[in-house]
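JOB MANIFEST
job_type = single_chain_structure
chain_count = 1
residues = 177
[input]
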Amino acid sequence: MRRTGFVIGLVAAIALLASVGQGFAQTATTTTTTTLPPHPFSPASASCVRAAYHAKRLCRRSGDTTCRTDFETAYSKCFATGAGVTCAKRCVTRETSCVDAIPKTKTTCRQACHKALVRDVRACRRIADGDTIWAGADASCLTTAQANRDLCAFVCSQARRDCGTSLRFCIANCANL
């Protein structure tokens, strides 16, 4: 039964991830857009951002403890002077706060998943024998409870990705070089 829950959760996750890759549909008469960032970086900003990430990787390899601060400064300078730099600095600072909170976020999330599973299992055990509300009775209910828990755990494991996504959407509003 645990394996079935895992398979259901995995199928749901794959379906969600497959739908993410579809950018936009376009026909001769209608254009449908998604929530992808509204524009790519300008060539100058893109080059600068790549250089900032490269410098951060090299810094981390050297064991320097100021890598993140140096990166935030270099990254924010990849945007238009004034409002663009301020906007980028705010976005990168938010991402840093998000990343720093990941351990606590994951712990809280996992605890919530466990509590929900316990409550779901308790509710499944309350289903009266012969109750026709659930086609599979207890087995179906318990499988659904486990699948919900597995999906919840998957969502918890994506905390780092959420921080990166938030940065991409925030930075899309900052003026490029």
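[summary]
The longest strand covers residues 25-26.
Residues 5 and 143 are 6 Å apart (CA to CA).
exit_status = 0
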